[in-house]
Known about the structure:
- By secondary structure, this protein is an alpha/beta fold.
- The chain folds into two domains: 4-127 and 318-331, 3-Layer(aba) Sandwich (Rossmann fold), CATH 3.40.50; 130-313, 2-Layer Sandwich (Dihydrodipicolinate Reductase, domain 2).
- The chain contains eight helices and 13 strands.
- The strands form two sheets. A seven-stranded mixed beta sheet has the order 3-4-2-1-5-6-7, sandwiched between helices. A six-stranded mixed beta sheet has the order 9-8-10-13-12-11.
- β1, α1 and β2 form a beta-alpha-beta unit.
- The longest helix is centred in the middle third of the chain and has 17 residues, at 129-145.
- The protein is globular.
- The model has no long low-confidence stretch (mean pLDDT 97).
- NADP nicotinamide-adenine-dinucleotide phosphate is lined by residues 9-16, 36-38, 40-41, 58, 72-74, 77, 95-96, 129, 159-160, 162-164, 313-314, 317-318.
Amino acid sequence: MRLQDIAVVGASGLVGRKIIQTLQERNFPVGKIIAIASENSVGKEVNIGGHRYKLHKLEDGIFKNVEFAFFSAGASVSHNWAPEAAAEKAVVIDNSSAFRMDDNVPLVVPEVNRSDIFRHKGIISNPNCSTIQLVMVLKPLDDAFRIKRVVVSTYQSASGAGYKGLTALDYEIRNPDTKHEHSPFPHRLAHNAIPHIDIFFEDGYTKEELKIINESRKILNRKDLNITATCVRIPSHTGHGEAVNIEFDRKFNLSDVRDVLSSFRGIKVLDDPSNHIYPMPINVKDKDEVFVGRIRSDQSVKNGINLWITADNIRKGAALNAVQIAEEYIKGK
Ligand SMILES: NC(=O)c1ccc[n+]([C@@H]2O[C@H](COP(=O)([O-])OP(=O)(O)OC[C@H]3O[C@@H](n4cnc5c(N)ncnc54)[C@H](OP(=O)(O)O)[C@@H]3O)[C@@H](O)[C@H]2O)c1
């Protein structure tokens, strides 16, 4: 297979490092990797899987001859540089929120809407981490029972805010009464739960909540989907949890729900509560799958269920999904 030259923007960050690690682990046909970070990191190196990568800064011409450009350095970097990479004929796979809701940019979870990849005009967006694990579960259920309404409450780990989030949490665990001075969170996170991720809008929702709502509708191609969200940051390191209530148009039985979920590629059902078996963030680190458990009927509505989802937000929630998009792109239509 022809080797692909790759740029990773944000290569010193949590997601960028994981993208390079995932490319190595999955034997992606990598030619050269150009590792890019901020100007502060120029001259430094990152060591990933025994390979050392020198860090470069963004500058004109850096994307020349690059076939895939993975961006994971925040929305403003993507806004400023992804069009330049696309103009150099690189296929951009963007982890930021910059282009996700742009009608000309596909928003893709390969197991859910693979064919959208091929509508791209240079940029393909990777969804928000909480959206990815949610739509992985909603898609097979929507196909089987037609979803009427979704209510999701998230329990999101500190790593969702990058290295700064992990550093703040570790510091606050060691220093019980203090908030880390460079914390990305609005309050002390250790021993706490913060119902606030990203900025608030006038209607009282946060941007993170709207990302889940709008991105899920776009990926599932269900503009009509009734869906609402509450996003909460909790003091776990890695792995997001989601408590989800789903109402269907059609009747169902729970064993069919389990079968539908178990047979969907990328989902693992872990649901044996009597033996204390259910998904937990502590168990999903570095796992590729989205885990589902606590599947039960909602007795308060006609055709409803409750369930609990967890996945590694850095892996399936970001890096793995991005690499899968590139893999599917190479395989072609
Ligand atoms: N963490 C998650 O769970 C998650 C999930 C999905 C999507 N994302 C998205 O992925 C992106 C990165 O997240 P992260 O968690 O990896 O953050 P992170 O650990 O803070 O890493 C940020 C990376 O961006 C680089 N960077 C910052 N400013 C830059 C600039 N002006 N030019 C070039 N590079 C620059 C940093 O380089 P330096 O080391 O030089 O500062 C670092 O490599 C964000 O857009 C985030 O929303 C994150």
